[in-house]
Design a protein that fits this description.
316 residues, mainly alpha
Amino acid sequence: MAWLQTLPAPVRVVYEAGPTGYRLARSCVEAGISCVVAAPSRIRPAADRVKTDRRDAERLARLLRLGEITPVRVPGPEEEAARDLVRAGEDARGDLMRARHRLSKLLLRHGAVYDATAWTRAHDAWLRRQRFPGGPLAVVFDECYSRMIDAKTRRDALDKAITELAASDPYVDVVDRLVCLRGVSTLTAFALTVELGDWHRFRPESLGPFLGLTPSEHSSGERRRQGAITKTGNTHARRLLIEAAWHHRRPPRRSVTLERRREGKSLAVRAQADSSARRLHGRWLALEARGKPRLIVVVAVARELAGHCWALATME
Protein backbone atom coordinates (compact mmCIF):
# COMPACT_ATOMS: atom_id res chain seq x y z
CA MET A 1 0.00 0.00 0.00
CA ALA A 2 2.86 2.37 0.82
CA TRP A 3 4.35 1.65 -2.62
CA LEU A 4 1.09 2.59 -4.35
CA GLN A 5 1.07 5.94 -2.62
CA THR A 6 4.52 6.74 -4.07
CA LEU A 7 3.24 6.47 -7.67
CA PRO A 8 2.26 9.66 -9.53
CA ALA A 9 -1.47 10.31 -9.49
CA PRO A 10 -3.93 9.32 -10.75
CA VAL A 11 -3.43 5.66 -9.78
CA ARG A 12 -5.83 2.87 -10.68
CA VAL A 13 -5.49 -0.63 -9.26
CA VAL A 14 -7.01 -3.94 -10.35
CA TYR A 15 -6.57 -7.46 -9.07
CA GLU A 16 -8.46 -10.74 -9.33
CA ALA A 17 -10.80 -11.88 -6.58
CA GLY A 18 -9.32 -14.81 -4.74
CA PRO A 19 -8.07 -16.15 -1.41
CA THR A 20 -6.40 -12.83 -0.51
CA GLY A 21 -9.83 -11.32 0.21
CA TYR A 22 -10.74 -7.65 0.02
CA ARG A 23 -8.39 -5.95 2.48
CA LEU A 24 -6.32 -4.41 -0.32
CA ALA A 25 -9.44 -3.01 -2.02
CA ARG A 26 -10.70 -1.45 1.19
CA SER A 27 -7.25 -0.01 1.98
CA CYS A 28 -7.09 1.56 -1.48
CA VAL A 29 -10.49 3.17 -1.04
CA GLU A 30 -9.45 4.59 2.34
CA ALA A 31 -6.32 6.05 0.72
CA GLY A 32 -8.32 7.59 -2.15
CA ILE A 33 -6.97 5.16 -4.78
CA SER A 34 -9.34 3.69 -7.36
CA CYS A 35 -9.37 -0.12 -7.01
CA VAL A 36 -11.34 -2.71 -8.97
CA VAL A 37 -11.61 -6.37 -7.96
CA ALA A 38 -12.06 -8.39 -11.15
CA ALA A 39 -14.19 -11.51 -11.54
CA PRO A 40 -11.68 -14.29 -12.39
CA SER A 41 -14.09 -16.17 -14.67
CA ARG A 42 -14.27 -13.15 -17.01
CA ILE A 43 -10.53 -12.61 -17.38
CA ARG A 44 -8.81 -15.54 -19.04
CA PRO A 45 -9.87 -16.82 -22.50
CA ALA A 46 -10.75 -20.51 -22.59
CA ALA A 47 -8.13 -21.19 -25.29
CA ASP A 48 -5.29 -19.64 -23.28
CA ARG A 49 -3.29 -22.53 -21.82
CA VAL A 50 -0.30 -20.44 -20.62
CA LYS A 51 -0.65 -18.80 -17.22
CA THR A 52 2.06 -16.69 -15.61
CA ASP A 53 1.90 -13.79 -13.19
CA ARG A 54 3.35 -11.43 -15.78
CA ARG A 55 0.82 -12.39 -18.49
CA ASP A 56 -2.04 -12.10 -16.01
CA ALA A 57 -0.87 -8.65 -14.86
CA GLU A 58 -0.53 -7.40 -18.44
CA ARG A 59 -3.96 -8.72 -19.38
CA LEU A 60 -5.56 -7.06 -16.34
CA ALA A 61 -3.86 -3.76 -17.15
CA ARG A 62 -5.08 -3.84 -20.77
CA LEU A 63 -8.65 -4.70 -19.75
CA LEU A 64 -8.64 -1.96 -17.12
CA ARG A 65 -7.47 0.60 -19.67
CA LEU A 66 -10.21 -0.50 -22.10
CA GLY A 67 -12.89 -0.51 -19.41
CA GLU A 68 -13.59 -4.21 -19.97
CA ILE A 69 -13.15 -5.40 -16.39
CA THR A 70 -16.17 -7.14 -14.84
CA PRO A 71 -15.96 -6.09 -11.17
CA VAL A 72 -17.15 -8.05 -8.17
CA ARG A 73 -18.87 -6.39 -5.24
CA VAL A 74 -16.53 -5.66 -2.33
CA PRO A 75 -18.28 -6.48 0.96
CA GLY A 76 -17.72 -4.58 4.17
CA PRO A 77 -15.66 -6.13 6.98
CA GLU A 78 -18.77 -7.15 8.97
CA GLU A 79 -20.42 -8.70 5.92
CA GLU A 80 -17.24 -10.58 5.03
CA ALA A 81 -17.01 -11.90 8.60
CA ALA A 82 -20.64 -13.08 8.43
CA ARG A 83 -19.86 -14.82 5.14
CA ASP A 84 -16.88 -16.56 6.73
CA LEU A 85 -19.15 -17.74 9.57
CA VAL A 86 -21.64 -19.19 7.09
CA ARG A 87 -18.92 -21.00 5.17
CA ALA A 88 -17.45 -22.36 8.41
CA GLY A 89 -20.90 -23.81 9.12
CA GLU A 90 -20.95 -25.36 5.63
CA ASP A 91 -17.56 -26.95 6.26
CA ALA A 92 -18.72 -28.30 9.64
CA ARG A 93 -21.77 -29.90 8.03
CA GLY A 94 -19.54 -31.50 5.41
CA ASP A 95 -17.21 -32.83 8.11
CA LEU A 96 -20.18 -34.26 10.02
CA MET A 97 -21.53 -35.98 6.90
CA ARG A 98 -18.16 -37.60 6.19
CA ALA A 99 -17.75 -38.68 9.83
CA ARG A 100 -21.21 -40.27 9.79
CA HIS A 101 -20.45 -42.09 6.56
CA ARG A 102 -17.22 -43.50 7.94
CA LEU A 103 -18.97 -44.73 11.10
CA SER A 104 -21.96 -46.26 9.31
CA LYS A 105 -19.79 -48.04 6.73
CA LEU A 106 -17.57 -49.44 9.48
CA LEU A 107 -20.61 -50.91 11.22
CA LEU A 108 -22.03 -52.19 7.93
CA ARG A 109 -18.83 -54.09 7.16
CA HIS A 110 -19.18 -55.90 10.47
CA GLY A 111 -22.89 -56.69 10.21
CA ALA A 112 -24.27 -54.01 12.55
CA VAL A 113 -27.21 -52.41 10.72
CA TYR A 114 -29.73 -49.97 12.24
CA ASP A 115 -33.16 -50.52 10.64
CA ALA A 116 -34.95 -47.34 11.79
CA THR A 117 -34.30 -43.66 11.02
CA ALA A 118 -30.60 -42.91 11.38
CA TRP A 119 -28.90 -40.12 13.34
CA THR A 120 -31.70 -39.63 15.85
CA ARG A 121 -31.52 -39.88 19.64
CA ALA A 122 -32.63 -43.50 19.44
CA HIS A 123 -29.92 -44.20 16.87
CA ASP A 124 -27.31 -42.55 19.07
CA ALA A 125 -28.39 -44.70 22.02
CA TRP A 126 -28.06 -47.77 19.78
CA LEU A 127 -24.57 -46.68 18.74
CA ARG A 128 -23.48 -46.32 22.37
CA ARG A 129 -24.67 -49.85 23.08
CA GLN A 130 -22.44 -51.35 20.41
CA ARG A 131 -19.60 -53.44 21.81
CA PHE A 132 -16.65 -54.90 19.96
CA PRO A 133 -13.96 -57.29 21.13
CA GLY A 134 -10.82 -55.58 22.37
CA GLY A 135 -8.18 -54.79 19.81
CA PRO A 136 -8.00 -52.74 16.59
CA LEU A 137 -11.76 -52.85 15.85
CA ALA A 138 -12.70 -51.36 19.23
CA VAL A 139 -10.11 -48.61 18.78
CA VAL A 140 -11.40 -47.78 15.28
CA PHE A 141 -15.04 -47.68 16.43
CA ASP A 142 -14.26 -45.40 19.37
CA GLU A 143 -12.27 -43.10 17.07
CA CYS A 144 -15.03 -42.90 14.42
CA TYR A 145 -17.74 -42.32 17.02
CA SER A 146 -15.77 -39.59 18.84
CA ARG A 147 -14.99 -37.86 15.52
CA MET A 148 -18.69 -37.87 14.68
CA ILE A 149 -19.63 -36.41 18.08
CA ASP A 150 -16.94 -33.71 17.77
CA ALA A 151 -18.17 -32.76 14.29
CA LYS A 152 -21.77 -32.58 15.51
CA THR A 153 -20.75 -30.37 18.44
CA ARG A 154 -18.89 -28.00 16.11
CA ARG A 155 -21.83 -27.85 13.70
CA ASP A 156 -24.34 -27.12 16.49
CA ALA A 157 -22.14 -24.36 17.92
CA LEU A 158 -21.74 -22.69 14.53
CA ASP A 159 -25.46 -23.03 13.76
CA LYS A 160 -26.26 -21.32 17.06
CA ALA A 161 -23.87 -18.46 16.25
CA ILE A 162 -25.41 -18.08 12.78
CA THR A 163 -28.95 -18.04 14.21
CA GLU A 164 -28.01 -15.34 16.72
CA LEU A 165 -26.37 -13.20 14.04
CA ALA A 166 -29.36 -13.65 11.72
CA ALA A 167 -31.61 -12.15 14.42
CA SER A 168 -29.59 -8.93 14.52
CA ASP A 169 -29.38 -5.88 12.26
CA PRO A 170 -29.00 -5.49 9.33
CA TYR A 171 -30.04 -9.06 8.48
CA VAL A 172 -33.14 -9.70 10.57
CA ASP A 173 -35.70 -7.99 8.31
CA VAL A 174 -34.72 -9.85 5.15
CA VAL A 175 -34.25 -13.18 6.94
CA ASP A 176 -37.67 -12.92 8.60
CA ARG A 177 -39.30 -12.54 5.20
CA LEU A 178 -37.33 -15.28 3.44
CA VAL A 179 -38.10 -17.93 6.08
CA CYS A 180 -41.77 -17.71 5.07
CA LEU A 181 -40.90 -19.65 1.91
CA ARG A 182 -41.06 -23.44 1.87
CA GLY A 183 -37.66 -25.07 2.26
CA VAL A 184 -35.95 -21.86 3.42
CA SER A 185 -34.88 -22.15 7.05
CA THR A 186 -33.17 -19.44 9.08
CA LEU A 187 -29.74 -20.82 8.19
CA THR A 188 -30.59 -20.91 4.48
CA ALA A 189 -32.12 -17.42 4.47
CA PHE A 190 -29.14 -15.92 6.29
CA ALA A 191 -26.62 -17.72 4.06
CA LEU A 192 -28.36 -16.45 0.90
CA THR A 193 -28.45 -12.93 2.30
CA VAL A 194 -24.75 -12.73 3.15
CA GLU A 195 -23.62 -14.56 0.01
CA LEU A 196 -25.60 -12.33 -2.36
CA GLY A 197 -25.15 -9.12 -0.38
CA ASP A 198 -27.44 -6.32 -1.50
CA TRP A 199 -30.51 -7.91 -3.12
CA HIS A 200 -31.43 -4.62 -4.80
CA ARG A 201 -28.43 -4.80 -7.13
CA PHE A 202 -30.11 -7.72 -8.97
CA ARG A 203 -33.13 -8.15 -11.16
CA PRO A 204 -35.11 -11.38 -10.66
CA GLU A 205 -34.20 -12.63 -14.15
CA SER A 206 -30.50 -11.96 -13.56
CA LEU A 207 -30.18 -14.18 -10.50
CA GLY A 208 -30.28 -17.42 -12.49
CA PRO A 209 -27.29 -16.54 -14.71
CA PHE A 210 -25.44 -14.99 -11.75
CA LEU A 211 -25.73 -18.22 -9.75
CA GLY A 212 -24.93 -20.53 -12.66
CA LEU A 213 -28.44 -22.04 -12.78
CA THR A 214 -28.98 -21.43 -16.51
CA PRO A 215 -28.14 -23.99 -19.22
CA SER A 216 -24.91 -23.69 -21.16
CA GLU A 217 -25.35 -23.31 -24.89
CA HIS A 218 -23.37 -24.10 -28.02
CA SER A 219 -25.43 -23.03 -31.02
CA SER A 220 -24.51 -22.35 -34.61
CA GLY A 221 -26.73 -21.31 -37.49
CA GLU A 222 -30.20 -22.75 -37.08
CA ARG A 223 -28.99 -25.47 -34.72
CA ARG A 224 -29.43 -24.83 -31.03
CA ARG A 225 -27.80 -27.10 -28.48
CA GLN A 226 -28.10 -26.60 -24.72
CA GLY A 227 -26.04 -28.45 -22.17
CA ALA A 228 -25.59 -28.66 -18.43
CA ILE A 229 -25.96 -25.59 -16.24
CA THR A 230 -23.02 -23.19 -16.31
CA LYS A 231 -22.26 -23.46 -12.54
CA THR A 232 -20.74 -19.98 -12.52
CA GLY A 233 -21.06 -17.60 -9.62
CA ASN A 234 -21.59 -18.46 -5.98
CA THR A 235 -21.45 -22.21 -5.32
CA HIS A 236 -22.86 -21.97 -1.78
CA ALA A 237 -25.95 -20.01 -2.79
CA ARG A 238 -26.61 -22.32 -5.74
CA ARG A 239 -26.49 -25.44 -3.55
CA LEU A 240 -28.81 -23.89 -0.95
CA LEU A 241 -31.41 -22.97 -3.57
CA ILE A 242 -31.34 -26.47 -5.07
CA GLU A 243 -31.79 -28.01 -1.62
CA ALA A 244 -34.74 -25.71 -0.95
CA ALA A 245 -36.27 -26.48 -4.35
CA TRP A 246 -36.67 -30.17 -3.44
CA HIS A 247 -39.36 -29.19 -0.91
CA HIS A 248 -41.64 -28.06 -3.75
CA ARG A 249 -42.10 -31.50 -5.29
CA ARG A 250 -44.98 -32.09 -2.87
CA PRO A 251 -48.20 -30.02 -2.69
CA PRO A 252 -48.09 -26.98 -0.37
CA ARG A 253 -49.22 -27.69 3.17
CA ARG A 254 -49.24 -25.83 6.46
CA SER A 255 -46.57 -27.60 8.50
CA VAL A 256 -46.03 -26.76 12.17
CA THR A 257 -42.45 -25.65 11.51
CA LEU A 258 -43.43 -23.34 8.65
CA GLU A 259 -46.29 -21.80 10.63
CA ARG A 260 -43.93 -21.15 13.53
CA ARG A 261 -41.53 -19.32 11.20
CA ARG A 262 -44.43 -17.23 9.80
CA GLU A 263 -45.70 -16.05 13.18
CA GLY A 264 -45.88 -12.27 13.39
CA LYS A 265 -45.23 -11.69 9.69
CA SER A 266 -47.40 -9.31 7.69
CA LEU A 267 -50.30 -10.53 5.59
CA ALA A 268 -48.57 -9.31 2.42
CA VAL A 269 -45.47 -11.38 3.13
CA ARG A 270 -47.51 -14.50 3.96
CA ALA A 271 -49.64 -14.06 0.83
CA GLN A 272 -46.54 -13.67 -1.33
CA ALA A 273 -45.01 -16.81 0.20
CA ASP A 274 -48.21 -18.82 -0.36
CA SER A 275 -48.41 -17.65 -3.96
CA SER A 276 -44.78 -18.64 -4.48
CA ALA A 277 -45.38 -22.11 -3.03
CA ARG A 278 -48.33 -22.73 -5.37
CA ARG A 279 -46.43 -21.40 -8.37
CA LEU A 280 -43.30 -23.46 -7.72
CA HIS A 281 -45.22 -26.69 -7.10
CA GLY A 282 -47.18 -26.11 -10.29
CA ARG A 283 -43.92 -25.54 -12.14
CA TRP A 284 -42.58 -28.84 -10.79
CA LEU A 285 -45.69 -30.75 -11.91
CA ALA A 286 -45.68 -29.13 -15.36
CA LEU A 287 -42.04 -30.05 -16.00
CA GLU A 288 -42.54 -33.62 -14.80
CA ALA A 289 -45.61 -33.93 -17.05
CA ARG A 290 -43.36 -33.02 -19.99
CA GLY A 291 -41.10 -35.93 -19.11
CA LYS A 292 -38.19 -33.90 -17.79
CA PRO A 293 -35.72 -35.77 -15.54
CA ARG A 294 -36.04 -34.90 -11.87
CA LEU A 295 -32.58 -33.33 -11.67
CA ILE A 296 -33.49 -30.93 -14.47
CA VAL A 297 -36.80 -30.17 -12.78
CA VAL A 298 -35.19 -29.28 -9.45
CA VAL A 299 -32.68 -26.95 -11.11
CA ALA A 300 -35.45 -25.16 -13.02
CA VAL A 301 -37.48 -24.76 -9.82
CA ALA A 302 -34.37 -23.51 -7.97
CA ARG A 303 -33.81 -20.90 -10.68
CA GLU A 304 -37.37 -19.65 -10.28
CA LEU A 305 -37.13 -19.86 -6.48
CA ALA A 306 -34.24 -17.38 -6.64
CA GLY A 307 -36.62 -14.87 -8.19
CA HIS A 308 -39.22 -15.43 -5.48
CA CYS A 309 -36.52 -14.92 -2.83
CA TRP A 310 -35.63 -11.62 -4.52
CA ALA A 311 -39.30 -10.54 -4.48
CA LEU A 312 -39.57 -11.11 -0.72
CA ALA A 313 -36.13 -9.69 0.10
CA THR A 314 -36.81 -6.44 -1.74
CA MET A 315 -40.41 -6.09 -0.54
CA GLU A 316 -41.03 -2.77 1.20
